[in-house]
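Lab meeting notes turned into a lecture example. A postdoc, R.K., suggested we walk through two folding results consecutively so the class can see how the record format repeats. The first protein's sequence and structure tokens come next.
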Amino acid sequence: MTVLDSLRPAPGLRVLVTAGGSGIGAAVARAFCDAGARVHVCDIDRSTLDRLAADAPAITSSVADASNPQDVDLVFDDVRGTLGGLDVLVNNAGIAGPTAGIESIDAAQWERTVDVNLNSQFLFARRAVPMLRQSEAGASMLVMSSVAGRLGYAFRTPYAATKWALVGMMKSLAIELGPQGVRVNAILPGTVEGPRMNAVIAARAAAAGVSADAMRGEYVRKTSLRRMVTADDVAAMSLFLCSPAARNVSGQAISVDANLEYL
């Protein structure tokens, strides 16, 4: 088999996607399922899981708050029951956090953003790593960061801080787990089309005192390719990074962002 023959993950790969009910998480879950993987997702919103089940009934799921240690334990109980092990963890859970100047952000907003965006990834990685070490299918972990994990982001300080922290977490785990054959990489999506980005644009526009259309145009102009990306673009990168073609790719923070030049 050549490298070009190995651009898709091996069939039967056992995959867990956090916050997999909608958005990027759902696109990633569907992509792995379509590639022949066995996929389990968790999400805090049962209605999104119900919609995903109607669209992709082969994907199993758990209702869970990714930042709650007890919920995380229950997810792994489900994973053992449905998948019998784990080859890939896609650590995707995250929230936008507040859009405001630093003096207007209260401690509860900061702590909730850190809990969901950073602490949840620790909780899932801690439980997944023993299972990944036992994988015989080329185990890997994907850390979903953001282009805000390589650029400063005015009025989004909690979000950017957590996304930078995730890159450091990924780099450290890649060194720690590499000798056991577990690859760890981060994906840094840019401005991803969808309801969540629409809400971010609206909030940023309000903070800056401009229209939402003007703010959307500003986001597009900041990219070299003059376009936003889609959740499917991120899913395609996820498939590649978990495929045999990427067997020597680890410890990398890879942007999928149409070359977003600044925020």
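The second example is placed directly after the first for contrast:
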Amino acid sequence: MSPPENRLFTIGKDLLGIILLLIFLILFLNFDRLNDSEMLNDIPSAWVNVNTIFLSIVIEAIPFILLGVFVSAIIQIYISEDTIQRYLPSNVYASLFPAAVLGAIFPLCECAIVPVVRRLIKKGMPLHVGVVFLVAAPILNPIVALSTFFAFRTDLTILYSRMGLAFFLSIIIGAIIYIVMKNEKGSVLRSTKSADDHHHHHHHHQPSGFTGRMRQMSYHAVDEFFMMGKYLILGAFIAALFQTFLDRATLMAIGGNDFTAPIVMMAFAYLLSLCSEADAFVASSFSNQFTSGSLVAFLVYGPMLDLKNTFMLFAFFKTRFVLVFMITVTIVVFIAVLLLQMFLL
């Protein structure tokens, strides 16, 4: 896109985010008034139910998004890629485990992790190590663990399964990418200059001192909050529509099947493109209709691969790598969930 078109696209996305957040605030602030109002008599009960489910999901998730964006902003300003790379071993397979551990330390959502991994690879990080970090970081961090705990506090096997699978599968996915792509000639990165380069350049020329850093941190946090918030609100609304209008018998038939339920929830996770700090609350709203294994599939697959980070992957990486990555993640997660359902859930 040319710069003017890019600016218009960015303004449009920001405007959509502001509109969605305003709709949420209006509904939230007037919820009690609406309940007492005779206006509800003219609204079909199904839409009242949609409003109730939608608000409950968003209200539970917003504190974790706020926590996530501020921690992410601190990392963006105070921790460099060189610091992360310094602690990784040079051996191919020995580096996979520490990369997964690093993913457990840094709370970066799937929106932010793609440009970060691209920068790391440009600075010399091996591709397979970057892939481990790419799929592990959005799930394996304290904020996501905390939000999953609160969303599934009555069934902590979901939390343990999500974290355990994410850790081991990130290592497996990294190893598979190394085996498939090790003979690939040339870099898998696209050579075109992107908005991310400008963003990275901007942060390296930020004002020095505590005040300048705090200002940049607040800018970063606000940008991420609006970006994550609009996806959360859209996802919560679609989830509420699904649960209200989809035929219960159909929902139970799909959700109760150990084979089809994970496929449906993985597709749902891909299309909704929810932030990993908030997706557990959307998943928990389906806990009465879908199997535990399919909920784990939703919670593991979505942060690793969704619609919005697919666009980012194609923008930053060459097509062959992106296709190999998408196929690998999809097959590995699906097989792992089937095995999990057979032996543990």
